[in-house]
């Protein structure tokens, strides 16, 4: 039991013994303070979640909600045969894998570097975190032009170094990696932040002991810091995974899912089904599938990164 | 870490290399902003003229002009979008603070029948990714006749589960003796909340306010869905759909609009980093 809970308990016992019943006005005040939050969450978060679950079992058009029909698992059965859906899920998973493989190790390295308080730390921190407060739309607009075929900034740099220019977003082979790069640039700062918070929680005595043993540099990071940060690493991979499933803005602004569905992903597919084809039930089935998939991935990660280590 | 005053030569070299890497990181992450600003100050003809091949004129405007900024306000009605975003953000922040402070106070101070279940539901809500429930959320909003209204843009977010959580945490840090003393003096629950608890929540309120402001200003997918009327549209969607489809965008103007959409938050962030980052780290939420 935490001290906080103990204290709460003591207070409760004391009030109970003096047997003062809370006045009605007290209950009314609490109710008034709590009601807006409960109403908001029920109407705009939990309600829609339940509604999505129910809708995924129905055939219902966004244009006319009254004409709906219970179809059981038919939406899910149809999804299994929908090649575009498989394609978009494949892209989503590729994106997740690419993101985890690049962003997590890179963020760890950057956090270790920033934690050492070298010259330039403050500026680098500000630079890394700037995309966290920049909208996805602005980021997509900037990167869109940097990727421009023939005359974009990246091609100017490539041309300057003497290599052949690249098609980037207009090539079905390069479009997804290009979108992935934007995503990593956009929220690696977030992973770095969490790693930094984790690093600052490691007691200095651990490093002092390691230094006495002559462990430093890369080996220090690999064999001392990293194992101590397993729980932090888990949070970082969780967050990176969830964000990867949520990617929408760069795809909407830069590629519209193309070329040839090369950048279509789960959320973009769902958006199309709901708002272009008015296929509410089908879109809900995609949403539910995504929830299940994310939950499954997080469970696997939790198992892989499970730790009993404490410091 | 190793804070030995006399650094070995090897350590010094490593530190210098580390600083070099940090410099490279700074360049990579600030560069797109610099390029955006530079391009927004160029006449449209210059954006590509000096973009390729590479030269210093790619990164600095050789003939700086504010013409693009003037055009987006006079011809594209960008001022309207800006005003819409401002109204939405102000309403969203104020209401979020009111709603979350109230709920955070109740959850942080009182136990009653069902309070744990209720708080559990708040936590469940904080884990629902918006994208997954966006379609039913849109249906609810439409049935409430809130599409194409400001309220439709901010109301869904004011009951912010993460905000409630953050405020509850800091309510628990306020010493209980304070409100017990107030109660003995005969203060009502309401008065205790307003006069004793609220003043102690300032840092938490600032954090929640900042998170809500950044999220509100930057939201894209929700206004894209919930607003059809171009006059009601917010800044972020406006820049993404800036030019008529099928027509080549005028890049200088696009970048001017993007700069206007991005810079206010970047400037606020530079000054209030600490509060924003605390919220992001403790809540695992991104703007």
UniProtKB/TrEMBL annotation, chain A:
GO CC terms of this entry: plasma membrane
InterPro entries reported for this sequence: ABC_transporter_permease, MetI-like, MetI-like_sf
Keyword Cell division applies: no
Gene3D superfamilies tied to this protein: MetI-like (1.10.3720.10)
SUPFAM superfamilies xrefs: MetI-like
PROSITE patterns: ABC_TM1 (PS50928)
Keywords linked to the UniProt accession: Cell membrane, Membrane, Sugar transport, Transmembrane, Transmembrane helix, Transport
Pfam family, one: BPD_transp_1
Chain ranges of the ABC transmembrane type-1 domain: 89-301
Membrane topology, record value: Multi-pass membrane protein
Residue stretches spanning the membrane: 30-54, 93-114, 126-146, 228-248, 280-300
Location(s), subcellular: Cell membrane
Main location, first listed in the record: membrane
Domain of life: Bacteria
Cell membrane listed as a keyword: yes
GO biological process: transmembrane transport
Family per record: Belongs to the binding-protein-dependent transport system permease family.
Name used for this protein in its record: ABC-type sugar transport system permease subunit
Automatic annotation (TrEMBL), chain B:
Alphabetic keyword roster: Cell membrane, Membrane, Transmembrane, Transmembrane helix, Transport
Coiled-coil intervals, chain numbering: none
Annotated Pfam families: BPD_transp_1
Record field: transmembrane: 20-38, 82-106, 118-138, 150-167, 204-225, 254-277
ABC transmembrane type-1 domain ranges (all copies): 82-272
GO BP annotation list: transmembrane transport
Organism domain of life: Bacteria
Subcellular location per the Swiss-Prot or TrEMBL entry: Cell membrane
UniProt-listed InterPro entries: MetI-like (IPR000515), MetI-like_sf (IPR035906)
Gene Ontology CC: plasma membrane
Membrane topology recorded in Swiss-Prot or TrEMBL: Multi-pass membrane protein
Principal subcellular localisation of the protein: membrane
Membership in a protein family: Belongs to the binding-protein-dependent transport system permease family.
Protein name, UniProt field: ABC-type glycerol-3-phosphate transport system permease component
Organism the protein comes from: Kribbella shirazensis
């Amino acid at each position: 039991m935490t001290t906080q809970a103990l204290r709460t308990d003591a207070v409760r016992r004391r009030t109970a013994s003096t047997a003062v019943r809370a006045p009605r006005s007290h209950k009314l005040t609490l109710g008034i303070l709590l009601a807006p939050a409960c109403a908001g969450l029920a109407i705009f978060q939990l309600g829609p979640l339940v509604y999505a679950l129910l809708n995924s079992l129905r055939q219902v058009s966004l244009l006319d909600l009254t004409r709906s029909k219970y179809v059981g698992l038919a939406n899910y059965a149809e999804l299994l045969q929908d090649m575009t859906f498989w394609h978009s899920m494949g892209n989503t998973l590729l994106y997740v894998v690419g993101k985890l493989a690049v962003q997590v190790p890179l963020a760890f390295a950057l956090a270790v570097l920033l934690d050492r308080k070298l010259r330039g730390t403050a500026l680098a921190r500000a630079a890394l975190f700037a995309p966290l407060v920049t909208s996805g739309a602005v980021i997509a607009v900037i990167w869109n032009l940097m990727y421009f075929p023939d005359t974009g900034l990246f091609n100017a740099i490539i041309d300057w170094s003497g290599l052949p220019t690249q098609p980037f977003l207009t090539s079905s082979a390069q479009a997804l990696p290009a979108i992935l790069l934007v995503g990593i640039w956009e929220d690696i700062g977030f992973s770095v932040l969490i790693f930094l918070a984790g690093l600052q929680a490691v007691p200095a005595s651990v490093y002092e002991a390691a230094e006495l043993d002559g462990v430093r540099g890369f080996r220090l990071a690999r064999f001392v810091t990293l194992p101590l940060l397993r729980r932090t690493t888990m949070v970082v991979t969780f967050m990176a995974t969830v964000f990867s499933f949520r990617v929408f803005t760069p795809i909407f602004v830069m590629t519209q899912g193309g070329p040839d569905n090369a950048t279509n992903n789960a959320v973009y597919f769902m958006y199309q089904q709901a708002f272009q084809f008015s296929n509410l039930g089908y879109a809900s089935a995609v949403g539910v599938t995504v929830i299940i998939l994310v939950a499954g991935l997080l469970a696997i990660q939790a198992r892989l990164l499970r730790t009993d280590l404490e410091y | 870490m190793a804070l030995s005053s006399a650094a070995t030569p090897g350590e010094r070299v490593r530190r210098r290399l580390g600083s070099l890497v940090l410099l490279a990181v700074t360049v990579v992450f600030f560069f797109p902003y610099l390029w955006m600003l530079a391009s927004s100050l160029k006449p449209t003809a210059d954006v590509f003229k000096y973009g390729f091949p590479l030269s210093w004129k790619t990164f600095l405007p050789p003939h700086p002009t504010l013409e693009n900024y003037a055009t987006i306000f006079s011809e594209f009605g960008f001022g309207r979008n800006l005003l819409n975003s401002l109204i939405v953000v102000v309403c969203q922040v104020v209401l979020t603070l009111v709603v979350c402070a109230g709920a955070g106070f109740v959850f942080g101070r009182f136990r009653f029948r069902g309070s744990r279940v209720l708080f559990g539901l708040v936590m469940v809500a904080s884990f629902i990714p918006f994208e997954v429930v966006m379609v039913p959320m849109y249906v609810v909003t439409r049935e409430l006749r809130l599409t194409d209204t400001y309220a439709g843009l901010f109301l869904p977010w004011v009951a912010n589960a993460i905000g409630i959580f953050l405020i509850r945490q800091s309510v628990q840090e306020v010493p209980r003796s304070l409100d017990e003393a107030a109660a003995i003096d005969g203060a009502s629950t309401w008065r205790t909340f307003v006069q004793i608890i609220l003043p102690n929540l300032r840092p938490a309120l600032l954090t929640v306010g900042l998170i809500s402001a950044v999220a509100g200003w930057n939201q894209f997918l929700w206004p894209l869905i919930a607003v059809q009327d171009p006059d009601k549209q917010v800044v972020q969607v406006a820049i993404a759909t800036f030019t008529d489809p099928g027509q080549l965008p005028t890049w200088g103007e696009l970048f001017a609009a993007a700069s206007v959409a991005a810079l206010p938050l970047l400037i606020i962030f530079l000054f209030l980093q600490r509060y924003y980052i605390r919220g992001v780290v403790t809540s695992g939420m991104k703007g």
